[in-house]
Specification:
The protein is an alpha/beta fold. The chain is built from eight helices and seven strands. Strand 3 and strand 4 form a beta hairpin.
């Protein structure tokens, strides 16, 4: 069962090479994964995902995952993640001081946030959304195990992606992922075509 594989994956996370990611995703016979691609700060991309999620939830879909909160000015917060199912908040940055050049990402806090996705996969969900695919995932960290868990369970995944990471994304997804603009209707259209369930 994948639960055992995922547990082993998490325990031995740092020993896996990038080839593992590609092999895992290429071995899936049926999966749907797409990224909303942006070249700016990513506010519009995150907003498009939030709007799509709320629309789906209003229509009775089970949607799980984590997105950066959006403030009243349409700006997203990199330091926080919110569960799209129940709005639980997770602070994911460490306070390293003003002069620190180290990575601010708090691995422990991110793992706690990732439990939202893992629980939803175990319980069953129609769609998983993840705030972004970035340098942490490329380095075999971040929420990579959550991406793989959803894919291995056959659950469609939506995320955001800075355009500079497109080559890494295409390698990870086996070149079959959707690459979408920051437009809610386009995102919903991809979901309608990719998920085995009809929008009302």
């Amino acid at each position: 069962m994948f639960a055992t594989t995922l547990q082993d994956f998490v325990q031995n996370f740092n020993t896996f090479e990038s080839e593992f990611m590609s092999n895992q995703i290429e071995q899936q016979s049926e999966y749907a994964i797409a990224a909303v691609v942006y070249a700016d700060e990513g506010d519009a991309a995150i907003t498009a995902l939030w709007q799509a999620v709320r629309r789906l939830q209003q229509d009775g879909w089970r949607v799980a995952g984590l997105l950066n909160p959006i403030d009243n000015e349409g700006k997203h917060s990199n330091s926080e993640l919110a569960s799209v199912a129940d709005n639980r908040r997770f602070s994911i940055f460490q306070n390293l001081g003003n002069h620190s050049s180290g990575c601010k990402l708090d691995a422990g806090a991110l793992a706690a946030a990732g439990s939202v996705i893992r629980e939803a996969i175990a319980e069953g969900t129609d769609l998983v959304v993840i705030n972004k695919f970035g340098h942490a995932e490329i380095d075999n960290r971040g929420l990579l195990s959550e991406y793989l868990a959803a894919i291995s369970s056959g659950i469609p995944v939506l995320t955001t992606l800075h355009s500079k990471y497109l080559p890494d994304w295409r390698s990870f997804s086996g070149g079959v992922s959707g690459e979408l603009p920051a437009d809610t209707d386009t995102v919903l259209d991809w979901i309608k075509r990719s998920v085995k369930r009809n929008l009302p």
